[in-house]
Design goal:
The complex is a heterodimer of chains A (about 110) and B (about 110).
Chain A: E1 4-6, E2 11-14, E3 19-25, E4 32-38, E5 45-50, E6 55-57, E7 60-65, E8 70-75, E9 84-92, E10 95-98, E11 102-107
Parallel strand pairs in A: 2-11
Antiparallel strand pairs in A: 1-3, 3-8, 4-5, 4-9, 6-7, 7-8, 9-10, 9-11
Chain B: E1 3-7, E2 10-13, E3 19-26, E4 32-38, E5 44-52, E6 55-58, E7 65-70, E8 73-78, E9 87-94, E10 102-103, E11 107-111
Parallel strand pairs in B: 2-11
Antiparallel strand pairs in B: 1-3, 3-8, 4-5, 4-9, 5-6, 7-8, 9-10, 9-11
The chains are: A mainly beta (about 110), B mainly beta (about 110).
């Protein structure tokens, strides 16, 4: 099993729809989790941390399921500007592991 | 507030030429510093990280080296570039190893 695994997509979603994607991780001792957003040829930017109780930031909701070892990102009322690649990041055992990302295209 | 600067933004170099990419962090002390590479269509690969001046850990054997001559300066170098060194190079920092990372704007390196 890969350390951090994401569906590469692309997810093609009409504007205004809700989209969700997951990320699985292999190390049960992982301690912290993040979602990053990366636009083409740009640096990754922190979107949100993921807390055990789940957390919400505007249209974005992140959740952690330790038992099944996955984190999720839900985007409501998607905007054209949400088109990007979303990277899952898992920290633990002195290592920071990035997923390869899920590409999201919001269609007008 | 903290900022991270990375330059140059774009670089085209011939095979066999040397490389020097520089990264500096402002507004904080004793950061952890990282160099990542992202090849086209692939994930981020950690190349080097540093927890202090002169302390460099290498994650993968390669043609590159890193140095940290000052607390907030991190340099990625090569004596002779290979075609396979092409990619998007990103510098990043955090204060604790398990904390979120903050990235520089990246350098797109093309080795021809």
């Amino acid at each position: 099993r890969k350390e951090v695994e994401q569906d590469p997509g692309p997810f093609n979603v009409p504007e205004g729809a809700t989209v969700a994607f997951n990320c699985t991780y292999s190390n049960s001792a992982s301690q912290s989790f993040f979602w990053y957003r990366q636009d083409c040829r740009k640096e990754p930017k922190l979107l949100m941390s993921v807390y055990s109780s789940g957390n919400e930031d505007g249209r974005f909701t992140a959740q952690l399921n330790r038992a099944s070892q996955y984190i999720s990102l839900l985007i409501r009322d998607s905007k054209l500007s949400d088109s990007a690649t979303y990277l899952c990041v898992v920290n633990g055992d002195d290592k920071i592991i990035f997923g390869k990302g899920t590409r999201l295209h919001i269609l007008p | 507030s903290q900022t991270i600067h990375q330059w140059p933004a774009t670089l085209v170099q011939p095979v066999g030429s040397p490389l020097s990419l520089e990264c500096t962090v402002e507004g904080t002390s004793n950061p952890n510093l990282y160099w990542y590479r992202q090849a086209a269509g692939r994930g981020l690969q950690l190349l080097f990280y540093s927890v202090g001046i002169g302390q460099i850990s290498s994650e993968v054997p390669q043609n590159l080296s890193a140095s940290r001559p000052q607390d907030r300066q991190f340099i990625l170098s090569s004596k002779k570039l290979l075609l396979s060194d092409s990619g998007f190079y990103l510098c990043a920092w955090n204060l604790q190893h398990n904390e979120k990372l903050f990235f520089g704007s990246g350098t797109q390196l093309s080795v021809l």
